[in-house]
From TrEMBL:
GO terms for biological process: malate metabolic process; tricarboxylic acid cycle. Belongs to the LDH/MDH superfamily. MDH type 1 family. InterPro entries: Lactate/malate_DH_C, Lactate/malate_DH_N, Lactate_DH/Glyco_Ohase_4_C, Malate_DH_AS, Malate_DH_type1, NAD(P)-bd_dom_sf. Its EC number is 1.1.1.37. It is an enzyme of class 1 (oxidoreductase). Residues 95-237 form the Lactate/malate dehydrogenase N-terminal domain. One of its GO terms (cellular component) is mitochondrion. This is malate dehydrogenase. It catalyses: (S)-malate + NAD(+) = oxaloacetate + NADH + H(+). PROSITE patterns: MDH (PS00068).
Length: 412
Protein backbone atom coordinates (compact mmCIF):
# COMPACT_ATOMS: atom_id res chain seq x y z
CA UNK A 1 0.00 0.00 0.00
CA UNK A 2 2.82 2.37 0.77
CA UNK A 3 5.39 3.40 -1.75
CA UNK A 4 9.00 2.70 -0.90
CA UNK A 5 10.54 5.82 -2.33
CA UNK A 6 9.46 9.37 -3.05
CA UNK A 7 10.42 12.89 -2.08
CA UNK A 8 9.95 14.19 1.44
CA UNK A 9 8.85 17.75 2.08
CA UNK A 10 10.59 19.28 5.11
CA UNK A 11 9.05 22.36 6.64
CA UNK A 12 11.29 24.37 8.93
CA UNK A 13 10.70 25.89 12.34
CA UNK A 14 9.26 29.27 11.32
CA UNK A 15 6.05 28.71 9.42
CA UNK A 16 3.41 31.42 9.15
CA UNK A 17 -0.02 31.51 7.58
CA UNK A 18 0.29 31.10 3.83
CA UNK A 19 4.03 30.45 3.98
CA UNK A 20 5.99 28.26 1.59
CA UNK A 21 8.09 25.30 2.72
CA UNK A 22 11.64 26.43 3.51
CA UNK A 23 13.36 23.45 2.00
CA UNK A 24 12.66 20.40 -0.10
CA UNK A 25 14.87 17.38 0.25
CA UNK A 26 15.05 14.00 -1.44
CA UNK A 27 14.74 10.92 0.73
CA UNK A 28 13.93 7.24 0.45
CA UNK A 29 11.42 7.71 3.26
CA UNK A 30 8.14 8.99 1.95
CA UNK A 31 6.83 11.67 4.25
CA UNK A 32 6.20 15.24 5.19
CA UNK A 33 8.50 16.24 8.03
CA UNK A 34 7.53 19.09 10.30
CA UNK A 35 10.68 20.17 12.16
CA UNK A 36 9.62 22.70 14.73
CA UNK A 37 10.19 23.55 18.38
CA UNK A 38 6.59 24.62 18.47
CA UNK A 39 4.01 21.86 18.61
CA UNK A 40 2.15 21.46 15.34
CA UNK A 41 -1.20 23.09 15.96
CA UNK A 42 -3.00 22.57 12.70
CA UNK A 43 -2.91 20.58 9.54
CA UNK A 44 -5.82 21.46 7.31
CA UNK A 45 -6.37 20.66 3.68
CA UNK A 46 -3.47 21.91 1.61
CA UNK A 47 -1.68 24.03 4.21
CA UNK A 48 0.44 23.03 7.16
CA UNK A 49 1.35 25.38 9.97
CA UNK A 50 2.92 25.47 13.40
CA UNK A 51 0.90 28.21 15.00
CA UNK A 52 -2.05 29.50 12.99
CA UNK A 53 -5.66 28.89 13.94
CA UNK A 54 -7.43 26.26 11.86
CA UNK A 55 -10.40 28.55 11.49
CA UNK A 56 -8.28 30.89 9.36
CA UNK A 57 -6.99 28.19 7.06
CA UNK A 58 -8.61 27.27 3.75
CA UNK A 59 -9.43 23.58 3.90
CA UNK A 60 -11.35 20.74 2.30
CA UNK A 61 -12.58 19.89 5.76
CA UNK A 62 -15.53 21.07 7.82
CA UNK A 63 -15.08 22.63 11.25
CA UNK A 64 -15.61 19.47 13.28
CA UNK A 65 -13.26 17.34 11.17
CA UNK A 66 -10.65 20.10 11.19
CA UNK A 67 -10.79 20.31 14.98
CA UNK A 68 -10.37 16.56 15.35
CA UNK A 69 -7.47 16.49 12.90
CA UNK A 70 -5.79 19.41 14.66
CA UNK A 71 -6.16 17.70 18.03
CA UNK A 72 -4.74 14.46 16.63
CA UNK A 73 -1.61 16.13 15.27
CA UNK A 74 -1.16 18.29 18.36
CA UNK A 75 -1.29 15.15 20.50
CA UNK A 76 1.28 13.38 18.31
CA UNK A 77 3.53 16.42 18.45
CA UNK A 78 3.23 16.52 22.25
CA UNK A 79 4.19 12.87 22.52
CA UNK A 80 7.15 13.40 20.26
CA UNK A 81 8.31 16.36 22.36
CA UNK A 82 8.94 13.97 25.21
CA UNK A 83 11.66 12.33 23.11
CA UNK A 84 15.02 13.65 21.96
CA UNK A 85 13.72 14.43 18.46
CA UNK A 86 10.70 16.66 17.97
CA UNK A 87 9.92 15.59 14.40
CA UNK A 88 6.39 14.76 13.26
CA UNK A 89 6.08 12.72 10.09
CA UNK A 90 2.90 12.66 8.02
CA UNK A 91 3.47 9.70 5.76
CA UNK A 92 2.64 10.09 2.10
CA UNK A 93 1.76 6.46 1.65
CA UNK A 94 -1.29 6.05 -0.57
CA UNK A 95 -1.60 5.37 -4.28
CA UNK A 96 -4.42 7.13 -6.11
CA UNK A 97 -5.60 6.60 -9.69
CA UNK A 98 -7.74 9.12 -11.58
CA UNK A 99 -9.52 7.63 -14.58
CA UNK A 100 -10.38 10.44 -16.96
CA UNK A 101 -7.51 12.63 -15.81
CA UNK A 102 -7.23 14.73 -18.98
CA UNK A 103 -10.82 15.97 -18.81
CA UNK A 104 -12.43 19.09 -17.42
CA UNK A 105 -12.81 17.60 -13.94
CA UNK A 106 -9.79 15.31 -14.11
CA UNK A 107 -7.15 18.01 -14.61
CA UNK A 108 -8.02 20.30 -11.68
CA UNK A 109 -8.72 17.24 -9.55
CA UNK A 110 -5.27 15.85 -10.36
CA UNK A 111 -3.69 19.15 -9.31
CA UNK A 112 -5.51 19.12 -5.98
CA UNK A 113 -4.59 15.49 -5.35
CA UNK A 114 -0.95 16.24 -6.23
CA UNK A 115 -1.00 18.73 -3.34
CA UNK A 116 -2.15 16.17 -0.76
CA UNK A 117 0.53 15.18 1.77
CA UNK A 118 -1.04 11.72 2.05
CA UNK A 119 -0.51 10.70 -1.60
CA UNK A 120 2.75 8.98 -2.58
CA UNK A 121 1.80 7.91 -6.12
CA UNK A 122 -0.64 9.59 -8.49
CA UNK A 123 -1.62 7.57 -11.55
CA UNK A 124 -3.35 9.48 -14.34
CA UNK A 125 -5.31 7.61 -17.01
CA UNK A 126 -7.20 8.74 -20.07
CA UNK A 127 -7.72 7.68 -23.66
CA UNK A 128 -5.66 10.64 -24.93
CA UNK A 129 -3.78 13.80 -23.91
CA UNK A 130 -2.84 12.57 -20.44
CA UNK A 131 0.94 12.56 -20.98
CA UNK A 132 1.10 16.35 -21.04
CA UNK A 133 -1.05 16.66 -17.94
CA UNK A 134 1.27 14.31 -16.07
CA UNK A 135 4.39 16.12 -17.26
CA UNK A 136 2.93 19.44 -16.15
CA UNK A 137 1.96 18.16 -12.70
CA UNK A 138 5.27 16.38 -12.19
CA UNK A 139 6.99 19.77 -11.93
CA UNK A 140 5.07 20.59 -8.72
CA UNK A 141 7.36 20.11 -5.70
CA UNK A 142 4.99 17.98 -3.63
CA UNK A 143 5.73 14.41 -2.49
CA UNK A 144 3.61 12.34 -4.87
CA UNK A 145 5.16 10.77 -7.94
CA UNK A 146 3.08 11.22 -11.10
CA UNK A 147 2.75 8.59 -13.83
CA UNK A 148 0.66 8.69 -16.98
CA UNK A 149 -1.21 5.85 -18.69
CA UNK A 150 -2.87 6.18 -22.10
CA UNK A 151 -5.45 3.89 -23.66
CA UNK A 152 -7.02 0.59 -22.69
CA UNK A 153 -3.76 -1.34 -23.08
CA UNK A 154 -2.23 0.63 -20.19
CA UNK A 155 -5.28 0.65 -17.90
CA UNK A 156 -4.32 -2.49 -15.98
CA UNK A 157 -0.88 -1.14 -15.11
CA UNK A 158 -2.45 2.12 -13.98
CA UNK A 159 -4.63 0.28 -11.46
CA UNK A 160 -2.27 -2.29 -9.97
CA UNK A 161 -1.69 -1.72 -6.26
CA UNK A 162 -3.89 1.37 -6.08
CA UNK A 163 -5.62 2.29 -2.81
CA UNK A 164 -8.27 4.67 -4.19
CA UNK A 165 -9.71 4.91 -7.71
CA UNK A 166 -11.51 8.10 -8.68
CA UNK A 167 -13.64 7.99 -11.85
CA UNK A 168 -14.62 11.32 -13.44
CA UNK A 169 -14.44 9.81 -16.96
CA UNK A 170 -17.29 10.45 -19.39
CA UNK A 171 -18.95 13.22 -21.32
CA UNK A 172 -20.04 16.43 -19.57
CA UNK A 173 -23.49 17.94 -19.58
CA UNK A 174 -24.34 20.55 -22.19
CA UNK A 175 -27.13 23.14 -22.17
CA UNK A 176 -30.52 21.45 -22.32
CA UNK A 177 -29.13 18.06 -21.29
CA UNK A 178 -30.23 16.28 -18.15
CA UNK A 179 -28.01 13.84 -16.29
CA UNK A 180 -30.20 11.10 -17.67
CA UNK A 181 -29.27 12.17 -21.21
CA UNK A 182 -25.70 11.19 -20.40
CA UNK A 183 -26.66 7.66 -19.47
CA UNK A 184 -26.06 5.72 -22.66
CA UNK A 185 -22.51 7.01 -23.15
CA UNK A 186 -21.31 7.19 -19.56
CA UNK A 187 -22.88 3.89 -18.52
CA UNK A 188 -20.69 2.01 -20.96
CA UNK A 189 -17.57 3.92 -19.92
CA UNK A 190 -18.13 3.22 -16.23
CA UNK A 191 -18.82 -0.47 -16.90
CA UNK A 192 -15.53 -0.88 -18.79
CA UNK A 193 -13.49 0.95 -16.16
CA UNK A 194 -15.03 -0.94 -13.24
CA UNK A 195 -14.25 -4.25 -14.94
CA UNK A 196 -10.60 -3.21 -14.97
CA UNK A 197 -10.78 -2.12 -11.34
CA UNK A 198 -12.26 -5.51 -10.39
CA UNK A 199 -9.43 -7.31 -12.15
CA UNK A 200 -6.52 -5.21 -10.89
CA UNK A 201 -7.35 -3.53 -7.56
CA UNK A 202 -10.53 -5.13 -6.17
CA UNK A 203 -9.79 -3.95 -2.62
CA UNK A 204 -9.50 -0.27 -3.54
CA UNK A 205 -11.94 2.44 -2.50
CA UNK A 206 -13.94 3.37 -5.63
CA UNK A 207 -15.17 6.95 -6.02
CA UNK A 208 -17.72 7.37 -8.83
CA UNK A 209 -18.13 10.89 -10.22
CA UNK A 210 -19.36 10.06 -13.74
CA UNK A 211 -22.98 11.09 -14.15
CA UNK A 212 -25.70 10.07 -13.74
CA UNK A 213 -24.34 8.91 -10.37
CA UNK A 214 -27.79 7.62 -9.39
CA UNK A 215 -27.36 5.01 -12.14
CA UNK A 216 -23.61 4.61 -12.55
CA UNK A 217 -23.08 3.50 -8.94
CA UNK A 218 -25.62 0.65 -9.31
CA UNK A 219 -23.90 -0.27 -12.60
CA UNK A 220 -20.56 -0.45 -10.81
CA UNK A 221 -22.08 -2.57 -8.05
CA UNK A 222 -23.54 -5.06 -10.52
CA UNK A 223 -20.27 -5.37 -12.44
CA UNK A 224 -18.34 -5.98 -9.22
CA UNK A 225 -20.91 -8.59 -8.18
CA UNK A 226 -20.55 -10.38 -11.51
CA UNK A 227 -16.78 -10.34 -11.02
CA UNK A 228 -17.19 -11.74 -7.51
CA UNK A 229 -15.41 -8.86 -5.76
CA UNK A 230 -18.21 -6.53 -4.66
CA UNK A 231 -17.62 -4.83 -1.31
CA UNK A 232 -20.45 -2.34 -0.66
CA UNK A 233 -18.37 -0.59 2.00
CA UNK A 234 -15.84 0.53 -0.60
CA UNK A 235 -18.09 1.79 -3.40
CA UNK A 236 -19.05 5.47 -3.24
CA UNK A 237 -21.03 7.83 -5.39
CA UNK A 238 -19.43 11.23 -4.78
CA UNK A 239 -22.21 13.66 -3.82
CA UNK A 240 -19.91 16.03 -1.94
CA UNK A 241 -20.59 18.82 -4.43
CA UNK A 242 -24.19 19.00 -3.20
CA UNK A 243 -22.90 19.49 0.36
CA UNK A 244 -20.33 22.06 -0.78
CA UNK A 245 -23.04 24.03 -2.56
CA UNK A 246 -25.45 23.77 0.35
CA UNK A 247 -22.83 25.01 2.80
CA UNK A 248 -21.84 27.88 0.51
CA UNK A 249 -25.36 29.04 -0.33
CA UNK A 250 -26.58 28.84 3.28
CA UNK A 251 -23.55 30.73 4.57
CA UNK A 252 -24.15 33.46 1.99
CA UNK A 253 -27.86 33.67 2.71
CA UNK A 254 -27.46 33.80 6.49
CA UNK A 255 -24.17 35.72 6.59
CA UNK A 256 -22.47 32.89 8.48
CA UNK A 257 -18.78 32.04 8.70
CA UNK A 258 -18.45 29.41 5.98
CA UNK A 259 -16.18 27.04 7.87
CA UNK A 260 -18.82 26.79 10.62
CA UNK A 261 -21.60 25.68 8.27
CA UNK A 262 -22.52 22.03 7.74
CA UNK A 263 -25.69 21.03 5.88
CA UNK A 264 -26.38 17.31 5.40
CA UNK A 265 -27.68 16.46 1.93
CA UNK A 266 -29.50 13.19 1.35
CA UNK A 267 -31.12 11.25 -1.49
CA UNK A 268 -29.26 11.12 -4.78
CA UNK A 269 -27.21 13.34 -7.05
CA UNK A 270 -29.58 14.76 -9.66
CA UNK A 271 -32.33 17.36 -9.58
CA UNK A 272 -35.10 16.63 -7.10
CA UNK A 273 -33.27 13.59 -5.73
CA UNK A 274 -30.92 16.07 -4.03
CA UNK A 275 -32.49 17.01 -0.69
CA UNK A 276 -30.63 19.42 1.61
CA UNK A 277 -31.80 19.07 5.21
CA UNK A 278 -31.78 22.75 6.10
CA UNK A 279 -33.49 22.04 9.42
CA UNK A 280 -30.35 20.19 10.49
CA UNK A 281 -27.94 22.95 9.52
CA UNK A 282 -25.05 23.49 11.91
CA UNK A 283 -24.86 26.02 13.45
CA UNK A 284 -28.61 26.12 13.90
CA UNK A 285 -30.29 28.66 11.61
CA UNK A 286 -33.86 29.76 11.06
CA UNK A 287 -35.27 29.85 7.54
CA UNK A 288 -38.54 31.23 6.23
CA UNK A 289 -40.63 28.96 4.02
CA UNK A 290 -39.56 31.03 1.02
CA UNK A 291 -35.88 30.75 1.94
CA UNK A 292 -36.20 26.97 2.32
CA UNK A 293 -37.83 26.69 -1.09
CA UNK A 294 -35.34 29.01 -2.80
CA UNK A 295 -32.26 27.43 -1.25
CA UNK A 296 -33.44 23.89 -1.93
CA UNK A 297 -34.14 24.70 -5.58
CA UNK A 298 -30.78 26.42 -6.01
CA UNK A 299 -28.87 23.51 -4.46
CA UNK A 300 -30.79 21.02 -6.61
CA UNK A 301 -30.10 23.01 -9.76
CA UNK A 302 -26.57 24.18 -9.03
CA UNK A 303 -25.20 22.16 -11.91
CA UNK A 304 -27.66 23.67 -14.35
CA UNK A 305 -26.71 27.13 -13.08
CA UNK A 306 -23.10 26.50 -14.08
CA UNK A 307 -23.96 24.85 -17.41
CA UNK A 308 -26.06 27.84 -18.43
CA UNK A 309 -23.45 30.34 -17.22
CA UNK A 310 -20.80 28.62 -19.33
CA UNK A 311 -23.14 28.86 -22.33
CA UNK A 312 -22.20 25.57 -23.90
CA UNK A 313 -18.54 25.69 -22.94
CA UNK A 314 -18.80 23.06 -20.22
CA UNK A 315 -20.35 22.01 -16.94
CA UNK A 316 -19.37 22.25 -13.27
CA UNK A 317 -15.75 21.13 -13.46
CA UNK A 318 -13.82 23.23 -10.94
CA UNK A 319 -16.31 22.97 -8.08
CA UNK A 320 -16.72 19.26 -8.82
CA UNK A 321 -12.96 18.78 -8.73
CA UNK A 322 -12.79 20.58 -5.39
CA UNK A 323 -15.61 18.47 -3.96
CA UNK A 324 -14.03 15.25 -5.26
CA UNK A 325 -10.69 16.24 -3.72
CA UNK A 326 -12.39 16.90 -0.40
CA UNK A 327 -14.01 13.45 -0.43
CA UNK A 328 -10.74 11.83 -1.46
CA UNK A 329 -8.86 13.58 1.34
CA UNK A 330 -11.46 12.31 3.80
CA UNK A 331 -11.07 8.76 2.46
CA UNK A 332 -7.30 8.96 2.77
CA UNK A 333 -7.55 10.25 6.33
CA UNK A 334 -9.82 7.32 7.16
CA UNK A 335 -7.40 4.88 5.55
CA UNK A 336 -4.62 6.51 7.53
CA UNK A 337 -6.42 5.75 10.80
CA UNK A 338 -8.40 8.89 11.59
CA UNK A 339 -11.39 7.62 13.56
CA UNK A 340 -13.61 10.67 13.15
CA UNK A 341 -14.28 11.09 9.42
CA UNK A 342 -17.80 11.79 8.19
CA UNK A 343 -19.01 12.67 4.69
CA UNK A 344 -22.23 12.43 2.72
CA UNK A 345 -22.05 9.83 -0.06
CA UNK A 346 -24.31 7.70 -2.30
CA UNK A 347 -23.80 4.15 -1.05
CA UNK A 348 -25.55 0.86 -0.57
CA UNK A 349 -27.86 1.64 2.30
CA UNK A 350 -30.74 0.44 4.44
CA UNK A 351 -31.88 3.82 5.77
CA UNK A 352 -34.76 3.70 3.27
CA UNK A 353 -36.36 0.94 1.23
CA UNK A 354 -34.07 1.85 -1.69
CA UNK A 355 -30.87 -0.20 -2.20
CA UNK A 356 -28.73 2.94 -2.63
CA UNK A 357 -29.12 6.27 -0.90
CA UNK A 358 -27.01 9.34 -0.13
CA UNK A 359 -26.62 10.28 3.50
CA UNK A 360 -23.87 10.91 6.00
CA UNK A 361 -21.53 7.97 6.54
CA UNK A 362 -18.64 7.35 8.88
CA UNK A 363 -15.49 6.34 7.02
CA UNK A 364 -12.81 4.00 8.30
CA UNK A 365 -9.92 1.88 7.08
CA UNK A 366 -12.33 -0.66 5.59
CA UNK A 367 -14.67 1.87 4.01
CA UNK A 368 -18.12 2.68 5.33
CA UNK A 369 -18.17 1.94 9.06
CA UNK A 370 -21.66 3.29 9.68
CA UNK A 371 -24.53 4.96 7.85
CA UNK A 372 -25.94 7.79 9.94
CA UNK A 373 -29.68 7.12 9.90
CA UNK A 374 -30.50 9.73 12.54
CA UNK A 375 -30.36 12.50 9.93
CA UNK A 376 -33.63 11.17 8.53
CA UNK A 377 -35.38 11.53 11.88
CA UNK A 378 -37.36 14.62 12.85
CA UNK A 379 -37.66 16.05 9.34
CA UNK A 380 -39.80 19.08 8.66
CA UNK A 381 -42.99 18.65 6.65
CA UNK A 382 -41.25 20.17 3.61
CA UNK A 383 -38.31 17.77 3.91
CA UNK A 384 -40.54 14.74 4.53
CA UNK A 385 -42.54 15.50 1.38
CA UNK A 386 -39.33 16.05 -0.57
CA UNK A 387 -38.03 12.69 0.61
CA UNK A 388 -41.10 10.83 -0.60
CA UNK A 389 -40.99 12.57 -3.99
CA UNK A 390 -37.29 11.90 -4.56
CA UNK A 391 -37.65 8.21 -3.75
CA UNK A 392 -39.80 7.66 -6.83
CA UNK A 393 -37.28 9.18 -9.24
CA UNK A 394 -34.28 7.70 -7.49
CA UNK A 395 -35.82 4.22 -7.60
CA UNK A 396 -36.19 4.49 -11.38
CA UNK A 397 -32.59 5.65 -11.84
CA UNK A 398 -31.22 2.82 -9.72
CA UNK A 399 -33.29 0.22 -11.58
CA UNK A 400 -32.13 1.65 -14.90
CA UNK A 401 -28.50 1.18 -13.89
CA UNK A 402 -29.04 -2.34 -12.63
CA UNK A 403 -30.91 -3.34 -15.80
CA UNK A 404 -28.13 -1.95 -18.00
CA UNK A 405 -25.44 -3.89 -16.14
CA UNK A 406 -27.40 -7.13 -16.13
CA UNK A 407 -27.99 -6.98 -19.88
CA UNK A 408 -24.32 -6.38 -20.64
CA UNK A 409 -21.88 -9.26 -20.67
CA UNK A 410 -18.98 -8.69 -18.30
CA UNK A 411 -15.57 -9.16 -19.89
CA UNK A 412 -13.82 -12.13 -18.31
Amino acid sequence: MAATSASALSIGSTISHGSIANQVSQSKAVGVNFNSRTHLKSFAGLKASASVSCESVSSFLGKESTAVLRHSFARKAHNLSQTSSNVLQVKASFKVAILGAAGGIGQPLALLVKMSPLVSDLHLYDIANVKGVAADLSHCNTPSQVRDFTGSEELANCLKGVDVVVIPAGVPRKPGMTRDDLFNINAGIVKTLIEAVADNCPDAFIHIISNPVNSTVPIAAEVLKQKGVYNPKKLFGVTTLDVVRANTFVAQKKNLKLIDVDVPVIGGHAGITILPLLSKTKPSATFTDQEVNDLTNRIQNGGTEVVEAKAGAGSATLSMAYAAARFLESSLRALDGDSDVYECAFVQSEVTELPFFASRVKLGKKGVEAVISSDLEGLTEYEAKGLEVLKVELKGSIEKGVAFAQKQAVTA
